[in-house]
Amino acid sequence: MFDKVLIANRGEIALRIQRACREMGISTVAVHSTADENAMHVRLADEAVCIGPPAATESYLNKHAILSAATITGADAIHPGYGFLSENAEFAAMVEEHGFTFIGPSPQHIREMGDKITAKQVVMEAGIPVVPGSSGAVRTAEEAGKIAAEIGYPVIIKATAGGGGRGMRVANSPDELATELQNASREAKSVFGNPDCYLEKYLGHPRHIEIQVLADNHGNAVHLGERDCSLQRRHQKVLEESPSPALNAEQREEIGQVVATAIKKIGYRSAGTIEFLFEDGKFYFIEMNTRLQVEHPITEMVCGIDIVREMIRVSSGAPLDFAQEDIKFQGHSIECRINAENPETFVPCPGKIGEYHAPGGLGIRVDSALYSGYTVPPHYDSMISKLIVHAATRNECLMRLRRALSEYVIEGLDTTIPLHQKLMAEPVFQNGDYDIHWLEKFVGK
After folding, report:
1. What angle do CA 110, 136, 188 make, to 5 degrees?
2. pLDDT tens, position by position, 205-223
3. Are residues 241 and 376 in the same domain?
4. DSSP-assigned beta bridge partners for residue 110
5. Best label site of 77, 86, 134, 254, fewest CB within 10 Å?
């Protein structure tokens, strides 16, 4: 097992990883920008190293600075958390080349799954169902037109190196296709440095369902059930729940086993998430995230497994110490992402925290690095807290979540807590009848 782990991230996820390390008797190293010198993850780490100015490109994305920090502190391994360099195959390779252990999958799997076309081919060969579409990049309007005619309109155009909703366009007719292909390619080139795009059938009312997996270097792979992440705004998740209100036990077990078998077949290690669109009882692969997910806590609450701990154990060479039949799913869990944003306009609102009071009680978990007097910097993602609730049933979970939201006090800046309170009162959400398009219509009222 490792003696010391450097955490190449910030905020609540850095704190989350620190806590797992502490419980395993592992020392931690925090890295931080000058904007984060008073951050909670810096205060609570065993050691801290400043790696650059506020801009992420000069600090949290600075591979050489992070590796230098690992060298001077004598770290054994580096955990990337999520975002920043967590799915950067070059960084993962550099970590290993410098004699450290990368707490995550192999650079090869990060690279394969980071390219949407390659990922689609890999999972198809492993037996995972995919959305009908092009077999590779589509570079001309004529080629796109032929494929769209085969699979039927509407179609969605996606950047092969995309993510976060960037480089995506929907075409409802042949007249729109050429224009939207050009727009998507231009945005993909600007954002990702790669103009290649591919086509898929656009599903009208799907759910976004993802399956959490864990695998080791000894041929063991398990699934930890599903999360429903359909409540999204501009392709960014707002609220997640597990299990999904849309699946029955038979569907859950079937897709879980398909994914676990595929993960084992491709030789994957560490935590990972296979994301699907689900419509009319069918699953369609959209992508694989080769990292820890923001919403991993709801899975932990339902299955009782510490995913971060298992990532660390697996990376140290240990096998999973449980099999699929050992995993028992209990109750229901919901996570609300609390952002420092205006709850109606969604304009980011960084600033200094005044009074801060987190909710408590049975089944309540708050993953946050906030404290009274802390200044939320304007340089990074606006998510400042995750409120996670667990209860025996979905209805009990909703009641508990309403209570927790009413207790949560974050003064000094705007947050999206009022948006989540509105969601709790909405019959469509209460009944679990939403799809991936519903929230944008709801907030647009």
Report:
1. 70
2. 999 999 999 999 999 999 9
3. yes
4. none
5. 254
Tell me which of 291, 313, 365, 400 is the catalytic residue.
291
Helix axis angle for 174-192 and 141-151, nearest 10°, is 120
Query: Residue 164's pLDDT is what?
Result: 66
SS (H, E, C) 313-360: HHHCCCCCCCCHHHCCCCCEEEEEEEECECCCCCCECCEECCCEECCC
The C-alpha atoms of residue 312 and residue 309 are separated, in whole angstroms, by 5
pLDDT tens, residue by residue, 138-172: 989 999 999 999 999 999 999 988 766 778 899 99
Task: Mark which of 50, 69, 87 sits at the end of a domain.
Answer: 87
Q: What's the pTM? A: 0.90
Buried b (16+ CB within 10 A) or exposed e, 113-152: bbbbbebbebbeebebebbebbeebbeebeebbebbeeee
Task: Decide if 394 is catalytic.
Answer: no
Which residue, of 179, 201, 223, is where some domain finishes? 201
Give the span between the Cα atoms of 403 and 406, in whole angstroms: 5
Distances from the Cα of 271 to the Cα of 15, 32, 50, 89, 321, angstroms: 18, 25, 28, 15, 14
* Residue 37 DSSP symbol: T
- The three-class DSSP label of residue 270 is strand
Single-letter residue type at 22: R
Longest dimension (CA), the chain: 61
